[in-house]
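Q: Structure tokens for this one, please.
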Amino acid sequence: MLTDSHCHLGSHKFSADELPALLTRAREAGITRLITLATNLEDIPTNLAIAERFAEVFACVGIHPCDVQDTPDDYLSALREFARHPRTAAIGETGLDYFHPAPADWTDEDYHQRQRDFLRQHFELAAELNLNVVIHTRDRKGDASFSDALEIYAPFAEQVRTVFHCFPGPFAQAERVFALGGLISFTGIATFKKATAVLDAAVRAPTGRFMVETDSPYLAPVPHRGQRCEPAYTRQTAEHLAAARSESLEFLASHTEMTAQDFFRLEI
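A: Here is the predicted structure, written as tokens:
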């Protein structure tokens, strides 16, 4: 019924032994597909192996912006091979992160420039392989990473779609994504009492332009806030959004499922 469009099943916070029980709880909650995302070269094989092991799981492969400093300059050849794997559904998680400070011996500008270079290279690879891109952006203040990511995305928008995952609001930013043909995705943050801008963006987002996700093991929705998040909790976020949009859960599930299916190019 629902797709968790963004989770990290390869995280050290999920042991390999507990994955069957984790997926059983997800199925019992109506979560029928899961997209697990890698964040560096080292954990791509783990995520692809999970996707090979469980029929309802697909993987995305990419370098998270907070991992660019530890990634070799010639990483693209390895990433290209991973991206050709039959269980790869998109390129990502990639993007720009201006929230975390630069690593030791790096200036902020050098660190951010390397992130921008990697993001552009991810888009080039996605265009080459006919895949879409999952983007992370985060700023300490303002929206520089978001605006820079949009600028990098724009030249590829005719060939590649992107989803700005864990969308933080406001709706004015969502409109900038939609203008390029992109999507947004909502986590449990949308259920937080003070996240009014996020919920407003979810209410105003057109049908077919957004998905739901957990970003598990992070950002558990109410009533699980503060706990380790897991894919089953996609349902709580979906129920909250459906109520806010005056839709039935079944209707929200149907259109977000079709959106996920189209973006990740999954079979019915």
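A few notes: The longest strand covers residues 88-98. The CA atoms of residues 95 and 148 lie 10 Å apart.
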